[in-house]
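pinning this so it doesn't scroll away 📌
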Amino acid sequence: NHPALLLADEPTGNLDTTTGRQVVEMMRALSASGLAVVLVTHNPAIARQADQILNLTDGLIREEG
């Protein structure tokens, strides 16, 4: 299978720092290969690595930046 979209809800939430970093690096590589990656996180350090950041606040989605 070759999906066009990867949805990831808190993929690093229960991982140690090293493994979490590896997961994020893998997702960035997948994104660079053309796969659309949507990642949900509460971790600002992980969010800062994204190409685009959207925040959900009080039921509204807003683009950061």
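📌 and the second one:
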Amino acid sequence: MSIEITHNWDAKQWDWPLQHNDGVVRVINTPQKFEVGLDASFFTPKEIEVKVMGQSLHIHAQHESRSDAYGQIKREVNRTYHLPEDVDATTIKSHLSHNGVLTITAAKKA
């Protein structure tokens, strides 16, 4: 099952790069919710894919080679997280903020 990535910014707000290369990764697992947050500032929403396969959350981000003054750049990131048994996979949502933080949240089963 693929999860659509929502965002609330348009192309005019894209400011490359958006973060200070700090490699932010955050996982929150409380009785109410499961949340993963990570730095995806080098990618646009169309370059990010979020999928649930069984009890695994798969995040794949990739963009093709781009040229700059110094040469070619190609980036690809793959992350997989085990979903706790009490996560309601039908509630998973993903959002890419204007500053490049990808947040994936899910409610827990009642």
